[in-house]
Amino acid sequence: MSPTRVLVLNSGSSSVKYQLLDMGDGSRLAMGLVERIGEETSRLRHSAAGRGAARERTGPIADHEAALKAVAEELAADGLGLDSPELAAIGHRVVHGGQTFTAPTVVDDVVLAEIERLIPVAPLHNPANLTGIRTARALRPDVPQVAVFDTAFHTTMPESAARYAIDVETADAHRIRRYGFHGTSHAYVSRATAKLLGKAPEDVNVIVLHLGNGASASAVRGGRCVDTSMGLTPLEGLVMGTRSGDLDPAVIFHLTRVGGMSTDEIDTLLNKKSGLVGLCGDNDMREIRRRVDEGDERAALAFDIYIHRLKKYIGAYYAVLGHVDAVAFTAGVGENASPVREAALAGLGELGLAVDGELNAVRSDEPRLISPGNARVAVAVVPTDEELEIATQTYALVGRKQ
Questions:
Q1: 221: part of which helix (H) or strand (E)?
Q2: How many CB atoms are located within 10 Å of the residue 94 CB?
Q3: pLDDT band at residue 126 under the 50/70/90 scheme
Q4: 289 pLDDT more than 90
Q5: Strand order in the sheet with 105-106
Q6: Sign of the CA dihedral with 366 first, then 371, 376, and 382 last
């Protein structure tokens, strides 16, 4: 019998998130997180299905190799070791695949070299992704390693959506175009929304709103992305927890010339000190809503700016698609912040968009509709599952190659 287990690894700069899934029955066998890698206060939290409470270990974990070895030890303690013959593949989240990678790809030395070549357009993410892949290859060189790219789902965008209006030769020379991110989430949620409506993905037009600390929107026509809010980097688009989103490019020139700020200082400002945290000092939507309810004017303004930008993208993507079957909210804020969903669609009744107050207030881990029964456009809350999407794409690819 062919092996059916897939280990999913999401390697960040100082963390590794992982899940072990059995694709034979779709069950989640184990999951965990290693954080603060390289510090004295490193922590690994691990849980396995049917094996009691989660386990935690603390203490220094020097690097990603040590982190993955620790993960392997925890899995082995539950009888799920990486040496198991049931392990079919290891799937890796890779943030940036450029124009080269439009689908999940089995990793070899050529693929690794190309991911490394893309580091300049993803300096915070691709190096960590590479480290995770190389370490996993060393631990299990006989098992296929599959890279699943955040950008791949968005490679179906037409040139009219993907190109910036700058000199073509300059753009091509430096690979400047709109790539988009959160692709595994947008792919999963758009497909799950179609299922919720009882339709095939190719028969549905969906606006997906992935609202977490990072946030992005996409316009999906018949299962294919035709536009998305993030661009060359994850900085473009919606107001986010710490990122500014859309900005007049001349602000950067102004901060350089008048403010005397360096490129690195501006980079830090726009990526880490802007968005909600820059507007009101908080990037947790729960805390912001608490402050709004208490009459805090800064928090109220931050919330209003967040909603204004979100509403503009909903309207823009409605125009891009022409016909919309559903708007789907997902990720931490999208799944849990009912005031955000209500405010984002307020006043859009002429577009057929509305939420039912009682349905919107319900908390659930299941995909659900929150629009009135007679609504022209469905409004859905669809919990995302990027790990399952990565595992599904990985297993489908490995299965084709067996």
A1: strand 215-221
A2: 31
A3: confident
A4: yes
A5: 55-58, 43-48, 27-35, 16-22, 5-11, 87-94, 145-149, 105-106
A6: negative
Encoded amino acid at 146, one letter: V
Strand 368-369 relative to strand 215-221: parallel, antiparallel, unpaired?
unpaired
With beta carbons less than 8 A apart as the criterion, state whether 310 and 238 touch.
yes
84, two tokens = 């198991």
> What is the rounded CA–CA span in Å between residue 396 and residue 259?
52
Distance (Å, whole) CA 394 – CA 136: 15
Quick one: DSSP state of residue 5? Answer: E
Tens digits of residue pLDDT in 258-285: 999 999 999 999 999 999 999 999 999 9
Name the DSSP class of 50: T
Looking at residue 279, what is its pLDDT?
A: 98
Tracing tokens 């190309």 back to the chain, one arrives at 114
How far apart, in whole angstroms, are the C-alpha atoms of residue 174 and residue 169?
A: 9
Residues recognised as catalytic: 150
Task: Please give the model's pTM, rounded to 2 decimal places.
Answer: 0.91
Phi, psi (degrees; rounded to nearest 5) at 247: -155, 140
Is residue 381 a contact partner of residue 334, using CB atoms and an 8 Å limit? yes
Mean pLDDT of the chain: 93
Pairwise CA distance, residues 14 & 12, whole Å: 5
